[in-house]
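Summary for the funding panel

The consortium committed to producing paired sequence-structure records for every protein in the target list. Below we show the first two records in order, beginning with the earlier of the two.
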Amino acid sequence: MNGNVQPRLEPLADAGTAALAVGAALSGFLIGASGPPFFVAIAAGLVAGPTSGGLVLLGAILGGAIATLGVMIELATGHRPYLGVAVVAACAALIAGIFLGSSFGSSKGLGGWAVARVAPTPRVPMPSFPTCLEAHADVSIRLDAASGFTSNPTAGGPDGTFGHWCQSGPDSTDVLEVTAMDVARVGTSTIKADVWLTNPSLIDLSTTIPYPRVVLQLDGPSGMTASLWSGPARFVARDRMSGTVSFDALLADPAPSSLPRTLSGQLSWTCHAWSSR
């Protein structure tokens, strides 16, 4: 690789070296701007490595190193290493162009430097559940004397004990249901009362099931339901958190033995402050 030329051709050799370096720099700039020279991260389980531009970069580094060694040998032997200098200049310009192009392409998001546009993952809306409120309640019932039941006025405890409470409608502060676990007795059995002030269903059943509606459930000593009376009622008094309903001839089906087939009377309630479930 002596690369010696006649003295009159030295300017031509220098011009050729400069042109080669400029062309290498432009080529390197385009290569670097087109995309990353290396895969920094691909995916789990895949090894990162050079791209095609990275292979050119590695080749330029290797070629430049070999050419530099050749230039040093030529100089040591007293020769003018025109060819070696041209190769070193071209490799250095190519390397510099790749790094400059990489910086430019990365900042502008060109070619392979552009961030991949990932389609957003569709989000399935989660259903929102309605909020129902509860409050402890004071409940009293008056049944006709002929029924044989003894009324047992009840006061709900401050923490909702004794099982007497009011419940609101979904996402509402209006009273939907009033429940009392022990409002009347006959012998060792107790009466549980449920009053539905409005239709609890989203389906309009007002044409077939009238509201308000009262359900009286007789529980025996073992806690098993022995009899059930139910039927429509009418409001005697009502405001936002209290009221009274009157009911006539709540019907038990089937007819209980030794107990009246129908029950009549009044039920009153007072709901205390709401709290969320």
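The next record, for a separate protein in the list, is shown here:
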Amino acid sequence: MEQLSRIMPNRTETIKTRVSPKEKEMIEEYLEKSGEFDSKSRLIRILLHRHITNNKQDVEIDTDEIKSVIDNSVGDLQTELNEISERIADIEHKVRNSEDISELANDIYNQMLVLDDSIDEEFETIQDFEKLASTPEEEAAFTGSAKAFADLNGVNENTTRRALSRANDMFPDVKFVTERNGMRRYYRDER
């Protein structure tokens, strides 16, 4: 008897509800077509139980909605990753560019005119040295301009100006004079 009471719980309570003739017909048609239920009472009891337990425990999962949320999240993450990759590439470019500028600064430093105690006193200005230039290297050294060093090294003047500024920061003996026209002439002063 105990087993039977577990299988068939004590159903002493009654719930009555009114439905329209059309709703009653729909229930009877569903009952016949499904073949899952042997009475209207059983159909209503089981569907009601499923509805209540599904709302409490077994939440229906809309896979399309979840897929959409995941796709949007992945899309947002991809966008952020692309932005981070671009920033890293920009930093790498700046670091590499900085290394290139330092290398060019070092090259130009070695190409600059060196003024030391061995220079004759008859040369009072850098322009006096320009007259002695017989090679492109000497011309760049004697001229000391960004354009001359750019031409000698095969780079543009803006890059050369950055390298000259870097050389001025890196090497204490690098000096420059500014002509009246604003052009700077760089040299090494080891006097």
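Regarding this second record: The radius of gyration is 45 Å. Residues 2-56 form one domain.
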